[in-house]
Design goal:
Elements lengths: L11 E5 H11 L4 E4 L6 H11 L7 E4 L3 H13 L4 E6 H17 L5 E7 L13 H7 L3 E2 L4 H18 L3 E6 H5 L1 E5 L17 H4 L3 H24 L4 E3 L4 E6 H13 L6 E6 L1 E3 L3 H8 L4 E5 L5 H12 L5 E3 L14 H12 L29 H15 L34 H12 L5 E5 H7 L1 H9 L5 E6 L28 H7 L4 E5 L4 H12 L5 E6 L3 H8 L3
Parallel strand pairs: 2-3, 2-4, 4-5, 5-7, 6-7, 10-11, 10-13, 13-14, 15-16, 16-18, 17-18
Antiparallel strand pairs: 1-8, 6-12, 9-11
Helix pairs in contact: 1-2, 1-6, 3-4, 10-13, 14-19, 15-17
Length: 563
Amino acid sequence: MHKLLEESPGKKLLLLGNEAIVRGALEAGAAVCAAYPGTPSSEIANNLFFISQEPSPPLYFEFSTNEKVAMEVAAAASAAGIRSLTCMKHVGMNVAADVLMTLAYVGTKGGMVIITADDPSMHSSQNEQDNRYYARFSNLPMLEPSSPQEAKEMTIAAFDISEQLELPVIVRTTTRTSHVRGPVELGELPSNVTRKGNFQKDPRRWVPVPAVARMRHKVLLEAEEKARGLAEKSKYNFSKGQGSLGILATGVGACYAADAIHELGLSDKVKFLRLGFIYPFPNQILLEFMQGLDKVLVVEELEPFHEDNLKTLAYENGLDVEILGKKSGHFSRLYEFDPGHVKEAVAKAASVDYTPPVMPDLSAIPELPMRPPSLCPGCPHRETYNGIKEALKALGQEEKAIYPTDIGCYTLGLLPPIQMADYLLCMGSSVGTSAGFSVATDHKIVSFIGDSTFFHSGIAPLANAVHNEHKFCLVILDNSTTAMTGHQPNPGISLRPPGYDKPRVDIEEVVKACGVKNIAKVNPYKHKESLEVYKEVLAKDELSVIIAEAPCILYLKRVGGKK
């Protein structure tokens, strides 16, 4: 039995923040969940997947082809009265945003929770966007936990809030809250969860043609104000202490700030406000908090979300309070915080002496060699890259070739000695940008995309390339798994985890259906055979697709049992 299915109310388990979210969803009676994997959210989807494989599983889960589809699956289940959840990393919300903005208008029935996992410092991401702005953009409620215990509790609360407002509720985590471990007290698991609901037709709600959307926008704004009332009363928004300095903190920054206040001996000199129900802004709480304060230090990672709101609120209400944070230089808009950084900022704001601890002298220890990430030994992508490079060299085109690449472990083709990654934007961009390069330059264009990424967002731009007669070679690196995020299945896998019996979608057939005429399939480990195919395909000045098919070496060892 999966550990998160343990029925021991009151017992404490040491869980990741992401595992706590799963437990919260189970205790809340979530019955339909869908996701596309993306770090730092991946453990949520992985655990839901394994739980769904249990005998008599308590929920339905699927790895959808992308985040947009996952949100649509969850939204429809909610419309049928079933509690649902979808999770994604921060850039995944960009993919799902088309759904999100209109879903806010039509609303929900069964509770629906959207987990967005932000990645300050970009540990595994191509940007550092702050998804709190999606709550403001879509007028939807947002909660932000600061510990695994809160992650579980807020997930449960989010389902209740969703049903109360008939809106999806967003729960925002960051890498630290997703991946920290902490004690989590188990609650009761419901015994009466049903996966079958009843959708009641109502086109004047569920079909947002302009006339309906105009009416639903008003409903959304009214619900947003109801949500603000809930935020004002939320137990996740609380203050303690008193003094002329106020500190407002959210997320993991609240933990660092609380520690700093205690360690600097400021407990009786600082008024501390922790926000957990972070949007809509609980303006009444904030106004009461600012009363009698000379200045407020805002501790929040990434953008000045609350800092800007406090400044506006103080100005509109004639409060003479100095708001400190990112724009005052106490914090940076770059990267994640650490306890020392927050402690230094608190000391500066409180005008108390603080000397950072002296680092030990390590000059006698030789410097460790750099160990940058790289493709695994034996990775089939290495063989594909090397073969393509050799073929282009033989054709005299290596120097002028442009290599658009995509999101996956093969992005590491950027590094020496391969160095075959020249341009990257987002999932699926290798195909669309190849089209742009093909019309804007006379270079040979050879692009790379993984099998999971191809299903995620590579098919539509490939159809576009066929229709508009773009000329480039797309290499689909098919290693039969979603390798970078932990070997999750995708529609094209041939090497399957035990018990996984979903139908396979053949990549070659999809490529043919898009209208590509010049298609070749190779086993990159068969170097001589593959090299001849590469030369033949790359010599042509037309749209072509090479499918390099060989399983991820680590996945093969794990699932296939081979050495």
